[in-house]
Design goal:
alpha+beta, 2 domains, 4 helices, about 50% helix
Length: about 130
């Protein structure tokens, strides 16, 4: 029989210079940490104490409470990265098509590289793709 490990959710809310740590499943559990990378070790001991269970018998999921301004800007950054990735893919397709157009016109690979501003080796790769 496989035993399912309980996962405790821990909210980390910035309060001054520390993160205020709470666990909704254990209302009497409270702790604090100065940095997010310290949260898991800090609350593991507190949860084990409050729940009277071994420290290695559960998992922890840390959920930082972040400013709305961060969430909005992060979403914008994600959309911009996705658009940039799409633009890079399209630019590569157009570069290959441009190299093919020059090769189809009978130009030498070295001339294609010179015209496109890339090495002749890169021009060869574009044509071969």
């Amino acid at each position: 029989m496989v035993e399912i490990m309980t996962t405790y959710q821990v909210t980390a809310t910035r309060r001054g210079r520390v993160w205020d740590l709470r666990c909704p499943e254990l209302p009497t559990m409270w702790s604090e940490a100065t940095r997010l990378d310290q949260v898991e070790d800090t609350v593991r001991e507190a949860i084990a104490f409050v729940a009277a269970i071994p420290e290695d018998s559960f998992a922890i999921e840390v959920c930082p409470v972040l400013p709305e301004a961060y969430s909005l800007e992060e979403a914008r950054a994600k959309r911009a990265r996705e658009a940039a990735s799409l633009a890079n893919t399209q630019a590569a397709q157009h570069s290959r098509a441009a190299a093919h157009a020059l090769a189809d016109a009978g130009l030498a690979v070295r001339d294609i590289g010179r015209i496109m501003g890339v090495s002749h080796q890169r021009a060869h790769q574009l044509i071969a793709a």
